[in-house]
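With this grant's support, we have settled on a layout for protein records. A representative record follows, to show the layout.
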Amino acid sequence: MPRLRLALNQTDATVGDLAGNAESVVRWTRHAAGQGAHLVAFPEMMLTGYPVEDLALRPSFVEASRAALASLATRLAEEGLGELPVVVGYLDRSATARPRYGQPAGAPQNAVAVLYGGEPVLTFAKHHLPNYGVFDEFRHFVPGDTMPVVRVRGVDVALAVCEDLWQDGGRVPAARSARAGLLLSVNASPYERDKDDTRLELVRRRAREAGCTTAYLAMTGGQDELVFDGDSIVVDRDGEVVARAPQFTEGCVVLDLDLPSADTDAPAGVVDDGLLVDRVVLSEEPAPAHGPALSGGHAERLDDDEEVYSALVVGLRAYVAKNGFRSVLVGLSGGIDSALVAAIACDAVGAEHVHGVSMPSKYSSRHSLEDAAEMARRTGLHHRTVAIEPMFDAYMDALGLTGLAEENLQSRLRGTLLMALSNQEGHLVLAPGNKSELAVGYSTLYGDSVGAYGPIKDVYKTSVFRLAAWRNRAAGARGQVPPIPENSITKPPSAELRPGQVDTDSLPDYPVLDAILELYVDRDRGADEIVAAGYDRELVTRTLRMVDTAEYKRRQYPPGTKISPKGFGKDRRLPITNRWQERG
């Protein structure tokens, strides 16, 4: 039985950085060659980054991707890596698709190439195109219709792209029909909570359906709201895990796989779902075995809170770095939200690059100021205090505001101050709002909603408390000072915009609120279904009305890391002008 040494490069790519992404391919291919690899793989759209969104509809970008692929193949050969097959994702266009209504102009394709001998010897496009959640691939691509198979060291390797595994039919049964010894899927599947468990079961099932060892190579890093968590998996034909890569870590998994020899009578022509087998033979002779087999390793899984926290850190780090910022700015209120955001920022970019500003008004409590200062002391972030009272008084003298207008003025003054410091000093401002507040509109436009990124935008308030407690426990377990003051976790949440104010003056208790929101926002349950689940009818009706009327606010909130199956933004798209109401 031939032994194939496979190198799975779980790498990060930056959208549009063709040169930088190509350099990463060369660097990791060189590393894999040094490990004696026979086949090297990179994630979906590695060369262009993912998702490219409407860049796919721009002919100049498509042609730049095609040129970058050709240049990459040449360079690999020039550097002595031409005899090592490299599987890499890129953006291509169909040479055969005819323009038609409803098809993206130019027929762009989410494509993969096998580079060998200084040229692409096999190219193909993603067959199943996702069009749900954050995906708009019917808008951006046309599908491929082949079953690509590359023969390497006497093993037939069937190739697929991400959704080709997530959907039934297509390339998975076709791999069985083509009698492949290995099914290799390259992916850029975004992270969401508990997806690692779903992904593992998926890969196990598809391996049994394909009848062969299956390798699922995933991207890592972040792109705008999306985080890619890695977690590449290899299972045998029975679904048993052979190797598993770490989460949220860039690296190369190299492992030896004992696989069946390629069938000399393997079928050609059309197989399942009308896919045409496109087989390229690169090397027939099995590789001689040298030394003990490489196992690839089994990385330990992160627990649920560590996994979510890691995603938030990776998402923020990627956004800051890839958009050219060196430092971030956080309004430190002493409350739980800004404290968690500051902790995430310190872990993402280093405390020396985090600037916190306390902006007290006459309603700010002493303990809030002390908690903000204590947070800075524990983490080492830069901290300053700028009182907003003189500015507030000037506005009040001029306008004589009362009630909600007076409360919101304080928040807007703080937002203006943060943006002024951002303009003056070049920091990226972080918005501290959580998913509970965004859902019900418990925020001030142009106030606490200002910023370029919202690290906890997709985190419900109850999870904010849980993550803060986890971060402190993790610090204690490592013998470090817990970054978040205990008082910020235990005191009742308050915006402190009027005397004695607490969040529950305006909102239900957060555990109840979040449970209702999870049903309505994340699961699209109607009012009657939520009431039937055990919640008070009047409370449900009031909560849902708050959610519906706050859509205009959410449209103006900055992007933030997605960790749930349905985050605000691309996942959940509802009209602002909307007279439909759920009535419980």
